[in-house]
Specification:
Shape of chain B: elongated
Number of helices of chain B: 16
Mean pLDDT of chain A: 88
Number of helices of chain A: 23
Oligomer: heterodimer
Helix content of chain A: 25-40%
Number of strands of chain B: 0
Radius of gyration of chain A: 26 Å
Radius of gyration of chain B: 29 Å
Largest sheet of chain A: 4 strands, mixed
Structural class of chain B: mainly alpha
Number of strands of chain A: 20
Chain lengths: 585, 425
């Protein structure tokens, strides 16, 4: 006998199914809202309609008229206005959308250009995690104390290079996009612009060159972006008593009239924004699947800039597995040279060799939804990353003699695990019988990331991806150890170790107990002697930096933040030469 | 030869993908429409009605008569539904949270049950008659005064009645005044003053024992008919919505090797989906109850995956970039086409396209098991041809070639969640 469980109807239904689930739960939501009795009764009747229609489809001979009518409708539409089929968007007709400042391109934009896609293309995060533009725009006005007058630069999403655009309405690493669901054969777009993160938000880094100018590098970890802070800010501020429809509408009107010189919101738009703000305020309660609770982050050490806990976000927020207490924060990884010849396995523990799993999984981990991922675009970016070279060391050219000595040292101490990367060919040599691209249980670095990806997690992710046609059913594996990978572009990958717990290479070559237990993260200035970002000063210009700690106030280790392990210290006399050689990678 | 075989494999894969989509959609819709539960309710109504007619119950006979009024029919139906709701709403059939959710609505509670066998049916009826304290809620005017709280540990335990000999045991008590009890009067339209003598547990058990399988078979036929109709409607709907013109698909597959290769690559995934759909039932939760929402979600995902494999392979589905829309567009002069069709050409195109849609419907009517089987046969054939060719090549070169692989076993026929009987597990 099969007794069905209506209680589970409110259970987790993530991604594409969640939209339908959310809509079908309108009557359920009504039960939690103070509504008149007659509305409740009406909603209760509405709840039975889908079941009645579903039964009618099989029970009535007239049901065949439905597809026939549909066919006639399609033919009629095709005959009358065939262009309508290319317009699959739901226009809300909001005049304020036209008031969004236009991008000013610096060159002709080719939307199939993978570099453009990487920097400015959407990745599908806007559907679940995007913030409507005008709400995004007025947040610094409502929560001025949070931004300290810096706008979104405060979170590392500020200025950008001008090779594609002279001006964009949002900062670097962010994208402004309509929300689109990519269903098989159909794309449904809701035309309200939302701000969300894209590939470059985590993987396009910045640094200050010797002349003090800010430079950007594709594929480089965005070590200055505080993604967690950004996410937490919105979660927190949506619950703040100042975040009310009245205040948001008032601020939007101020910006529209005073800054953009446009008319204020219409009455209809005000209604739309009341609904949007109320939805954002109560999203976690009303739509737990679309806006999952992220309070699990509060039980772990703060990530700070340049770090993320993507697999736990995936596990807890998307798959809905119970919190396993692992603190699996990692540094944003570099994503150049992703082809199999160089990186046959991906992620810090080498848990997948499937580039689809790597690409789509990353998007889901930062707020994407499987039906919102523009797979073609993402795969094009993935193919481009395969051959994206690591950026060259941009500072004073390394001394060739010291480099030669450093190379000898590297061959002795490092090459057996990291291989010998040849920048000119983009290939790795000396990998025969080495531990290159193998997981090494002896490295002994902080184990939390490994605890966060046990075989059960691998199985859950495989199941998730297979059922949604995202990746292979055996795409993920749990390795229980960290991967020995290449050191291409190592200068741009500071801080070091998987969790970014060692500020520079000089410190990494010290015995673990001698490494600094506290340092500042997020500076754009490079320390050419130590090979890392300047980490001993609390500020970088007017930007306040994040104090990273491996231990707490009581000198107790902070889970996930340990800088132990990788105990392969190099004789002091060879360290400087080795660092000089590493600059050439 | 290989190109033809590959085209055939890819086409079979495409048809399988669409068939799987339809299977998943049918499962999803039939779950939402509670097809099994509705058929079960109708079946139990037929059973109690037959029992009453068999014993010349005046109310039942009057309702069946040619001059029966609506009031008579309604009274009869209400009586019989009381029986159905009491039996299917029995607390032993439901988890506690289900009972709490539907305690105000016994009819909805009864609809949560998809299956009951004859032994359980008789045992429940006997139990309700034997133990009025465990009957359904009294406020609904039904027999007994049983409530969900009776399932708490300190409540009198319900007698275990799952022995396969129960019907025979109850029938054997026909002559025992203490064992042959009256059925609740609400089930047969009786009253305190005019009890219906025939409505005893022994008579009921005897009737069920004799007629249950026949009525179940009739219900199974009706269920199959419903599902077949639904499958047809869904298939037609999907062919139209996704504009699946199989003639066009065939020619596209023949000309585009990349699409072919991508489809062939997705065969394993299709097999996986088909095995999931064939399993049909979701795994039970820890509390023993299958989750309807999880099942629905799984079906939606299977539907999405089936077609995603097609669209990701690059097969043109849908209306947006479809060939026929482009023809209409060209005819109206809205698209840059060097040779816009005349009305006659357009009519021919439309007829050709409609025949493609019709052909798709015919092919899809063969069902997912057929396409799965065909796909496996074609893949085996291709492997065999390939092996033979390699063997011949190696013989020509004077070296031992690889041995031909053993013939692969055919996958078992799968029913894709449409069992022969709605009551079969």
């Amino acid at each position: 006998m099969n007794a069905h469980d209506p209680g589970s109807e409110s259970g987790r239904v993530e991604d594409g199914a969640s939209v339908a689930a959310a809509l079908s739960e309108v009557p359920g939501l009504a039960a939690r809202m103070p509504l008149p009795q007659w509305i409740r009764a009406l909603l209760s009747r509405i709840k039975n309609i889908p079941a009645a229609i579903a039964f009618w489809l099989g029970a009535s001979r007239l049901a065949i008229l439905v597809p026939l009518a549909l066919l006639l409708g399609f033919i009629g539409t095709a005959a009358k206005n065939p262009r309508i089929f290319s317009q699959q968007s739901i226009g809300l007709g909001l005049p304020s959308e036209d008031a969004i400042p236009k991008e000013i391109p610096a060159q002709a934009i080719d939307t199939s250009d993978p570099v453009w896609l990487f920097r400015y293309g959407n990745t599908g995060t806007e559907f679940r995690s995007g913030i409507p533009y005008w709400v995004f725009r007025v947040m610094p006005r409502i929560f001025d104390e949070e931004f300290k007058g810096q706008g979104y630069e405060h979170f590392g999403f500020g200025e950008d290079s001008h090779d594609y655009y002279f001006r964009r309405p949002v900062g670097r690493g962010l994208v402004l996009s309509d929300s689109t669901l990519h269903l098989p054969a159909y794309e449904l777009t809701a035309s309200i612009k939302r701000v969300a993160i894209n590939c470059s938000g985590c993987h396009r880094g910045e640094y200050q060159d010797e002349a003090g100018r800010i430079r950007y590098a594709d594929g480089m970890p965005n070590h200055t972006a505080n993604l967690q802070g950004f996410k937490r800010f919105f979660t927190r501020s949506f619950k703040d008593p100042r975040f009310t429809p009245q205040r948001v509408i008032q601020e939007i009107n101020t910006v529209l009239t005073q800054e953009e010189h446009r008319p204020p919101l219409t009455r209809y738009e005000e209604i739309v924004y009341v609904l949007i703000v109320q939805g954002l305020r109560s999203a976690t309660e009303l739509f737990p699947d679309l806006a999952p609770d992220n309070s699990w982050m509060d039980k772990r050490a703060e990530n700070g800039p340049g770090r993320i806990d993507p697999f736990n976000a995936f596990k807890f927020e998307i798959i809905g597995v119970p919190d396993d207490s692992s603190a699996s924060q990692v540094d944003f990884p570099p994503i150049w040279n992703q082809r199999k010849e160089v990186r046959s396995w991906h992620h810090y523990d080498g848990n997948t060799d499937d580039s689809r799993a790597r690409n789509f999984g990353s998007i889901l981990g930062v707020g994407g939804m499987f039906l919102s991922i523009p797979k073609g675009q993402v795969l094009a970016v993935g193919a481009w990353l395969d051959f994206l070279p690591a950026p060259e060391y941009p500072f004073e050219k390394p001394d060739p003699e010291r480099v030669a000595r450093g190379l000898l040292s590297f061959r002795v101490h490092c090459a057996s695990c990291h291989g010998l990367y040849d920048r000119s060919t983009g290939l790795i040599s000396e990998v025969e019988n080495s531990r290159y691209m193998r997981v090494d249980p002896k490295v002994g670095t902080d184990p939390e990331r490994l605890k966060g990806f046990l075989p059960s997690a691998a199985a859950a992710l495989n199941d998730f991806g297979e059922k949604r046609a995202l990746w292979r059913r055996d795409a993920f594996r749990a390795t229980g150890a960290y991967l020995s990978g290449p050191l291409d572009g190592i200068w741009a990958r500071a801080p070091y170790l998987h969790n970014g717990s060692v500020p520079n290479l000089a410190a990494l070559l010290l015995p673990p107990q001698e490494r600094p237990k506290r340092f500042f993260r997020g500076s754009r200035r490079h320390d050419t002697a130590q090979m890392g970002w300047i980490s001993d000063q609390p500020r970088d210009g007017n930007r306040e930096l994040f104090l990273y700690r491996t231990v707490d106030e009581k000198d107790q280790p902070i889970p996930g933040n340990s800088n132990s392990g990788h105990p392969y210290s190099v004789p002091a006399a060879q360290r400087a030469d080795l660092v000089e050689y590493l600059k050439t990678l | 030869m290989f190109a033809l075989l590959e085209t055939a494999i890819a086409f079979a894969a495409a048809m399988l993908a669409v068939s799987l989509f339809i299977s998943a959609a049918v499962q999803w819709i039939s779950t939402i429409g509670r097809y099994r539960a509705t058929i079960l309710i109708d079946m139990l109504r037929a059973l109690i009605h037959g029992f009453r007619v068999f014993h010349n119950d005046s109310q039942a006979l009057a309702a069946d008569g040619p001059g029966a009024t609506e009031a008579q029919k309604k009274a009869c139906a209400d009586t019989e539904l009381t029986f159905v709701n009491d039996v299917l709403g029995d607390p032993v059939l439901h988890a506690r949270d289900i009972q709490l959710a539907y305690q105000e609505n016994p009819a909805a509670l009864a609809r949560q049950i998809d299956y009951i066998d004859e032994q359980d049916l008789v045992a429940l009826a006997y139990n309700i008659a034997t133990n009025p304290a465990h009957g359904p809620p009294a406020q609904h005017g039904h027999a007994g005064s049983r409530s969900i709280d009776d399932l708490s540990p300190w409540a009198p335990p319900v007698e275990a009645v799952h022995a396969p000999t129960r019907i025979r045991e109850i029938v054997a008590q026909a002559d025992s005044p203490s064992g042959n009890l009256s059925l609740p009067k609400e089930w047969v339209g009786g009253s305190e003053t005019e009890p219906k003598e025939y409505a005893t547990t022994a008579n009921f058990a005897a009737y069920v024992g004799r007629w249950f399988s026949t009525i179940e078979g009739t219900a199974a036929q009706r269920y199959k008919l419903l599902v077949r109709r639904l499958t047809f409607v869904v298939a037609a709907f999907i062919v139209v919505v996704f504009n699946i013109d199989s003639i066009r698909i065939l020619s596209e597959l023949h000309s585009k090797t990349t699409v072919r290769a991508a489809l062939v690559q997705g065969v394993d995934d299709l097999r996986l989906v088909s095995s999931r759909l064939a399993a049909s039932e979701p795994p039970a939760n820890e509390d023993g109850s299958g989750s309807i929402s999880q099942n629905n979600k799984a079906r939606l995902l299977d539907m999405q995956k089936s077609l995603a494999l097609l669209s990701e392979a690059g097969l043109s589905l849908g209306w947006r970039d479809s060939w026929i829309v482009k023809r209409f567009c060209a005819y109206r002069g809205l698209c840059a086409d060097p040779q816009p069709p005349s009305l006659g050409q357009l009519t021919l195109d439309v007829l050709g396209w409609l025949s493609g849609l019709l052909f798709t419907c015919v092919l899809l009517s063969l069902g997912a098991p057929f396409w799965l089987n065909t796909l496996s046969r074609l893949i085996n054939l291709k492997n065999e041809v390939q092996q033979r060719k390699e063997l011949e090549n190696s013989k020509d070169n004077g070296i031992d070639g690889p041995r031909p692989p053993p013939a692969q076993s055919q996958p078992p026929q799968q029913s894709f969640g449409v069992p022969s009987s709605p009551l079969a597990r």
